[in-house]
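pinned: reference chain
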Amino acid sequence: MRKVSILAVAIATLTATAQDVHMTQMYGVPLLLNPAMTGFFNGCYRVGAFGRLQWSTVMEAYKTLGVYADSRLLEGTLPRGDALGAGLFIVNDRSGDAPFIINMAIASGAYHKSLGDHTIAVGLQIGYVNKQIGNGVLYFPNQYVENVGFNPAIPTGESIKQSIGYPDFNIGVLAYGSINRDVSYFAGLAYFHLTQPKEQFSLTTTQPYRYPSRYVLHGGVSMIMTDYWRLIPTLVFMYQARVMDILPGVTVEYELSDENFLSGSLFYRYGDAIAASVGLGLGPLSFGIASDFNIGPLSNISVASRGWGGIEFIVRYTIQCYRLSVLIQTVPCPRI
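pinned: its structure tokens
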């Protein structure tokens, strides 16, 4: 479960047990995965849009929409092989009937230091997060009547801020390079919410909630199998608020031509879901679509879901540089 859950008891103190917004096609939105992946692509400029719709067959759907852009700067000016990545992403996330709304705008930067066949990147993100509680349906513990259920006519006795905001900071490191002509690798580590910012919607509580940090460990190996086929096994591990998210997967890419490709991926979110995605690259444009199928406890959230968790899309446009060659070995992660 990748969304914000506001439980009855949690609403009483207006704190939330939360996981950050993230996508199944994690490498399709790299700035959400690791700040050091800013500028980690084959080209000069990249812009993208993404969205996710979750559990729409069961309840008021969780909806995520976002855009991002990043670039590789100062190549040829910096030491040979080095580059500066700069980018920005904006996300809007809506959860449930109330709704609970998250808006964030994050600036992202990374320095890529070449060490011959290997590169080390260090990234930093600085931004602003706004969270809002809408005017929809909210139930509180003191509205519960034993053996009857919730009675919305009972006064809540709560004094609530509708909106809060705060600055946020994230850091990350990334290593990537070639082992030989046909095998390359990438591995990264990221730490989100360095300051564990305070969140306080209630005007009466004296103990503001500290939003938990998120830790990300990820990596993979790219193996060129033939002139047309590439195999990329990957692993993503995330930890936040005593919740672990383990996502092993494998991507297969087929080169249609020098600039076009097809891809397919299969992931297993440990104890939760199986996810599949397909991708298509047509010159500077690439597209991806993915769907989750719950197999863990959440598969029983409703008979109406039939185990279906959600669907997401990614579209991306990359502007190539005249000074860059194809970097399939030096940018080894999945292109979607």
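why pinned: The longest strand covers residues 118-133. The chain has two helices and 18 strands.
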